[in-house]
Amino acid sequence: MPARRAARTCALLALCLLGSAAQDFGPTRFICTSVPVDADMCAASVAAGGAEELRSSVLQLRETVLQQKETILSQKETIRELTTKLGRCESQSTLDAGPGEARAGGRKQPGSGKNTMGDLSRTPAAETLSQLGQTLQSLKTRLENLEQYSRLNSSSQTNSLKDLLQSKIDDLERQVLSRVNTLEEGKGGPRNDTEERVKIEGALTSLHQRISELEKGQKDNRPGDKFQLTFPLRTNYMYAKVKKSLPEMYAFTVCMWLKSSAAPGVGTPFSYAVPGQANELVLIEWGNNPMEILINDKVAKLPFVINDGKWHHICVSWTTRDGVWEAYQDGTQGGNGENLAPYHPIKPQGVLVLGQEQDTLGGGFDATQAFVGELAHFNIWDRKLSPGEVYNLATCSAKALSGNVIAWAESHIEIYGGATKWTFEACRQIN
């Protein structure tokens, strides 16, 4: 009987210690000791194993973790608000979104059409601040481009504005870094968070406005087709819209320059939706799927590999007769096929969007399908271009043609949600 009681005591002590531990401390051993029958075994001292010290350390660790969790949760809402407002500093309201479609297995399936701005807010707080860091980096890039422009068109006003903006960006970077450190240490509170949020939000708004003013001056001095669009973040509110729609087409060629290092998937360079069919014409690389062209919701996989952070020229041509298609990258045909939406003409009177995939006419954007990178010289023809014509475009030949349906021109493109326009000349600035 004493031996049995001692074994039971040892087992209970082991359970007490296991119940106190919140983490795996690696290999352990249990030491049994004699404890009076009416004693509190979980509070008993186990001198040989230092159980009381271990228990105290575990409790302190658990308390610290809980405090950090509560702090991050209390700050999550205000950081989400900051992230939401940040992307809307330069934007107009996103077009109304309705019931949309979610993408699965490379094909569209009916979905909930939910607002995916929540996708960003559900990320951990530190990751949200990382998004702020990316935005600051985008502002720095814009400022560097303006600096290069100012060297060619020097003026005291431009230089003073540049210096002021650089100083503000440096200050914001320090604030974001400090905020990340505070979150990592589990410190800070709602009051401090509100103050910093207001400060950062105001500074970013001012930066966007001032840089936009400088960019406007730069834009006034460049040719109408010498520009690119930049989409620095994967959001559901950053996009560009082509002012013209497409006519009915029984054949087409669409070409563009792209630069991206986004993974997984560069997103949706463009989408064309018509009433009753959101996927009338879409180019998308989503998740780990290869890039695809969708026509009337029918899919063909394309051989493009472009997410290496370098500029690439791509073209896709198609004809309704037998649904024959061809794909070109950097002037060379890399793939072809047939039976892609045969005898289905591209319908007119739709909405053409750059940088987002439409789940409804002109809206229903999904952040996970957004294009991240740079895009230029987006042109559409209502016929199949010959291999020689495609090669002229990819090599910037003087014989290169502009699209007869959609021609790349700054006056034809409206930008929203923080997308930007930059001076760009193909074959001179690439890579």
TrEMBL record:
Domain Pentraxin (PTX) per the UniProt entry, residue ranges: 225-427
Signal sequence extent: 1-22
MF annotations from Gene Ontology: metal ion binding
PROSITE patterns: PTX_1, PTX_2
Coiled coil: 129-175
UniProt-listed Pfam families: Pentaxin (PF00354)
Keyword Coiled coil: yes
Span list, region Disordered: 90-121
GO biological process: axonogenesis involved in innervation
Keyword annotations of the record: Calcium, Coiled coil, Disulfide bond, Glycoprotein, Metal-binding, Signal
CC cofactor: Ca(2+)
PANTHER family for this protein: NEURONAL PENTRAXIN-1 (PTHR19277:SF24), PENTRAXIN (PTHR19277)
Name of protein: Neuronal pentraxin 1
